[in-house]
Design a protein that fits this description.
Layout (H helix, E strand, L loop, with lengths): L1 H26 L11 H14 L7 H10 L4 H16 L3 H14 L6 H13 L10 H16 L4 H30 L3 H14 L6 H15 L2 H15 L3 H12 L11 H11 L4
Helix pairs in contact: 2-3, 2-4, 3-4, 4-5, 4-6, 5-6, 6-7, 6-8, 7-8, 8-9, 9-10, 10-11, 10-12, 11-12, 11-13
């Protein structure tokens, strides 16, 4: 009986909330002037529309009106970042970025500055194209995600930015791998090596490093550069012995009568030395 009583109470409270929201909706029509309402009333109406409407841009009017009618108030300040948020949700990325940046320029020390900076980063991140296209937006996303991480390290936005940074970073490595594979399939081994080397040197913490090392083994063997192929195999075996790409590289080297050992003096040998010392990864 006690549980049933609580359920009835919950339903009653929910009913009151629904009626209150409906009343708010009736009271503030989308086509009427808002000058007679308080800043808080207009702001909260914008929040309500943003939360309940399938078209987030509908909330923009309310946040813009708060800023127009009640400038230099806390509600006006908060309405700027809410405009940026609504614009981002409606995929108006350029406007969202400009609005969020305006907030940062005017209120750099505000508690919502981290959120505004995160919105700027998202306007790039959410536009990242597939791997087969130009990655200019990926570089921009990385730049602004890093800014959030470094400037606001103890915020929820920094934690989210770290995850997105890793994904965007991985995407850049994927682009290098795609081009490298293309050159490799065409027999342009020197060009392929340059791409796979970029992954090993610049994107070594991504998921593409094992394959990049294997493709280096493949490319160097095709070029007749045996010591480079062996050293790439040695690095692969030291760091990713359980990875299927190591098995493929081992098989390639074995067929060539070679072992996965660091030999000769080349750029891979230096990486191998650092790997053995534990400094590379």
């Amino acid at each position: 009986m006690l549980g049933a009583g609580r359920k009835l109470t919950t339903l009653a409270v929910a009913g009151v909330l629904v009626l209150a929201l409906a009343s708010c909706s009736d009271r503030v029509r989308t086509d009427e002037p808002l000058d007679n309402y308080t800043a808080q009333e207009i702001f909260e109406r914008g929040e309500y529309v943003l939360e309940t409407s399938a078209r987030p841009e509908g909330a923009l009017r309310y946040f813009r009106e708060v800023e127009r009618i009640y400038p230099y108030t806390d509600w006006a300040r908060r309405s700027i970042v809410m405009q940026a948020y609504a614009l981002h949700r409606s995929r108006q990325y350029d406007e969202a970025r400009a609005t969020a940046q305006r907030f940062l320029d005017q209120y750099p020390g505000d508690p919502d500055a981290a959120w505004a900076a995160y919105i700027v980063a998202l306007t790039y991140y959410d536009q990242i194209e597939d791997v087969g296209r130009d990655q200019g937006l990926t570089f921009q996303a990385l730049r602004y995600l890093r800014y959030v991480i470094e400037e606001y390290p103890n915020t929820e936005y920094a934690r989210s930015a770290v995850l997105k940074f890793d994904l965007a970073y991985d995407r850049l490595a994927a682009k290098e791998m795609e081009i490298g594979r293309y050159y490799l399939s065409r027999g342009n081994y020197s060009a392929a090596v340059n791409r796979f080397r970029a992954v090993v040197e610049q994107y070594q913490t991504t998921t593409h490093t094992p394959e990049a090392l294997h493709r280096l083994v493949e490319s160097y063997l095709a070029l007749g550069l045996r010591s480079e192929a062996q050293t790439a195999g040695a690095i692969l075996g030291h760091n990713f012995r359980s990875n299927p790409f190591y098995e493929d590289s081992y098989a390639l080297l074995n067929r060539a009568g070679l072992s996965a050992d660091a030999t000769g003096e080349n750029w891979l040998r230096e990486i191998y030395r650092r790997t053995v010392r534990g400094d590379w990864i």
